[in-house]
Recover the amino acids of this structure.
């Protein structure tokens, strides 16, 4: 192994960092370039259903044909930006509720008896042992008109008629918050459990009431955890397709569904690819912001 | 409370899973084997890609015994999944089962190999009328053989509909497209297919127009008709309605004939038999075909022809129909089909009703885009 690495001119450290780069190259960059390529093509009835970008026209001439119309099309029709905006809205609301629920849970676990922590964290992760799809289906069983929740409410006499909960926006929010809550709790917990509790004692000594101590010490210190948790929830929620289609009102306009229609119903792979590229840009921007904030923080520690 | 809820959720999930599986998915053939990896000494294997629960597993065993050809059987559950695999090429399958509406575009894209009809004497068993109808999708039936067919009509819970409106026009599209009528069933639960081609075509049938019209004015008229009933629809989905009709969440659906019958069977299996009816309305309905076809890059074309020829045998076709509850296109098989199925005029329509059935043809790319855009406006209600 070593002579091979040497021959390739790789030292131990470079070889180790090469692995994640190779991974990103194979499973992120190359697929991305393929999608980008298709987004500049034109659809046609053939296999594959789009025109090639590069063409040899004999005589050693290579033609490149770029079609920018797919991106222009996304601007012309209000369907696309409305769907993007609505997806971002749904993801933001879901992220907010995940934070609202996740913070107290992570806080309680981080401050609990160390021996209990592992069990509590296990309980948070436990649902992942069941397939995601199955857990969303379980919510159908809970929310439907003759489902668990409605029957329970009828039984205790809180309602007289079942409430229509399935196929509403409420069901979508329940589904997203439930599915992504662990992604909020895990980074928050990792952050809160590391916190130096003597800082709170110092704050108390200096006259802070517990809630003031929380607001002035714990909350600012946990900001990196909040940021990480929010991004981990927000990013997949923007492109969510399964939960709205199983639990939601069909009228809920989400970009995932628009992408599906372009790809499968219109069979217009180039426009579908353009939608995906723009969606990716929407997701990469907050990620880069996150990265920069983290770098700034790391820099601060070194000083 | 949380643990109780989790427990309950687990049970709910399990029951959903069980009911979704319906009458147990018989494992047929070696699903895990990569379909492309044919052993040397080819021709001794055929890779079939079919809809789930869409063949009698015994038929596969019998075919393997009769011919010595091993069947590798894979299943899909949407035309879209199949189409994507076919369009990217090298699917590795020797026989696929697209619906004719999708097949039509795929034939144009050059996905399929022409059939060698000399190897398929069983084609003579097919109903000439249905063959002629299928030829509108695949000119000259050069690339495909009709496997099963059905219609897009109205499924309804007889008791609930009768309780709300004793003289409900269940045999007319008035039930769906007359807002004054449909409004009465809003709370009872109404659903429609998430299928722009079929639903716009159906709206055009109600309006007395050609369901395959590509005129802008007709599309607008259909969209207006659909928009008027949009407030009364609870869901617009192409498969969820089966379970929802079976467990009483819905009372009227626009759906596929076989799916509505499946809902009735599921209700029976769950021990809550519902009187679920299906009707082909008097204004006519769209019909669909599922067809057998051989991809142009199939590695085992000869074995594929043998498999198709086997499926064309009347007793085999009847066996499959009995299993899947759909009508086959095999005229010689009709007397062999289970009497319940054969005499159900919603599955084997009378010639008068059959005359009112119309195909759902593939549309131009431009019209398809306009159609889907119109459909999104309708679904989102704006």
């Amino acid at each position: 192994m070593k002579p091979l690495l040497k021959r390739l001119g790789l030292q131990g450290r470079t070889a180790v960092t090469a692995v994640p780069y190779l991974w990103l190259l194979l499973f992120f960059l190359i697929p991305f370039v393929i999608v980008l390529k298709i987004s500049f093509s034109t659809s046609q009835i053939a296999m594959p259903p789009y025109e090639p970008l590069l063409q040899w026209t004999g005589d050693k001439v290579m033609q490149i044909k770029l079609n920018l119309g797919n991106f222009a099309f996304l601007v012309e029709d209000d369907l696309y930006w409305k769907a993007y905006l609505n997806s971002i809205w749904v993801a933001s609301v879901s992220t907010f509720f995940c934070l609202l629920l996740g913070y107290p849970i992570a806080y309680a676990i981080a401050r609990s008896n160390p021996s209990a922590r592992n069990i509590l964290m296990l309980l948070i992760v436990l649902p992942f042992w069941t397939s995601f799809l199955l857990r969303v289906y379980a919510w159908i069983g809970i929310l439907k008109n003759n489902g668990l929740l409605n029957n329970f409410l009828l039984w205790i006499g809180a309602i007289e008629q079942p409430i229509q909960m399935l196929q509403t926006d409420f069901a979508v929010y329940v589904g997203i918050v439930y599915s992504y809550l662990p992604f909020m709790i895990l980074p928050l917990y990792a952050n809160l459990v590391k916190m130096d509790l003597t800082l709170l004692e110092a704050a108390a000594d200096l006259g802070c009431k517990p809630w003031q101590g929380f607001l002035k010490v714990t909350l600012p210190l946990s900001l990196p955890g909040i940021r990480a948790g929010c991004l981990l929830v927000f990013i997949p929620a923007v492109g969510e397709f399964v939960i709205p289609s199983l639990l939601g009102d069909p009228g809920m306009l989400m970009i995932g569904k628009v992408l599906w229609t372009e790809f499968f119903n219109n069979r217009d792979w180039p426009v579908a690819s353009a939608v995906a590229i723009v969606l990716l840009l929407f997701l990469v921007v907050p990620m880069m912001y996150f990265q920069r904030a983290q770098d700034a923080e790391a820099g601060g520690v070194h000083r | 409370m949380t643990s109780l809820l989790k427990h309950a959720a687990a049970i709910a999930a399990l029951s959903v899973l069980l009911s979704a599986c319906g009458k147990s998915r018989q494992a047929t053939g070696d699903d895990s084997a990569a379909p492309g990896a044919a052993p040397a000494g080819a021709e001794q294997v055929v890779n079939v890609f079919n809809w789930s629960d869409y063949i009698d597993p015994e038929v596969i065993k019998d075919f393997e015994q009769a011919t010595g050809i091993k069947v590798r059987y894979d299943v899909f559950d949407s035309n879209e999944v199949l189409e994507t695999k076919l369009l990217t090429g090298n699917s590795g399958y020797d026989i696929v089962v697209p619906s004719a509406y999708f097949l039509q575009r795929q034939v144009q894209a050059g996905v399929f190999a022409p059939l060698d009809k000399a190897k398929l004497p069983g084609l003579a068993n097919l109903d000439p009328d249905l063959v002629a109808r299928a030829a509108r999708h695949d000119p000259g039936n050069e690339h495909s053989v009709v496997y099963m067919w059905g219609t897009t009509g109205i499924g309804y819970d007889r008791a609930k509909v009768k309780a709300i409106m004793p003289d409900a026009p269940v045999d007319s599209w008035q039930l769906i497209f007359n807002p004054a009528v449909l409004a009465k069933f809003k709370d009872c639960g109404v659903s429609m297919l998430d299928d722009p081609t079929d639903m716009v075509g159906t709206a055009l049938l109600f309006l007395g127009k050609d369901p395959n019209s590509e005129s802008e004015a007709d599309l607008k008229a259909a969209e207006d008709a659909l928009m008027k009933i949009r407030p009364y629809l609870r869901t617009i989905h192409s498969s969820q309605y089966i379970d929802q009709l079976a467990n009483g969440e819905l009372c009227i659906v626009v759906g596929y004939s076989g799916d509505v019958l499946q809902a009735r069977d599921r209700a029976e299996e769950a021990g809550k038999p519902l009187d679920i009816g299906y009707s082909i309305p008097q204004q006519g309905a769209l019909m669909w075909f599922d067809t057998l076809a051989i991809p142009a890059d199939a590695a085992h074309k000869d074995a594929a022809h043998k498999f198709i020829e086997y499926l064309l045998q009347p007793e085999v076709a009847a066996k499959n129909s009995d299993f899947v509850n759909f009508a086959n296109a095999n005229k010689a098989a009709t007397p062999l089909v289970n009497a319940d199925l054969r005499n159900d005029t919603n599955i084997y329509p009378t010639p008068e009703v059959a005359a009112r059935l119309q195909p759902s043809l593939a549309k131009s790319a431009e019209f398809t885009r306009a159609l889907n855009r119109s459909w999104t406006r309708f679904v989102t209600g704006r």
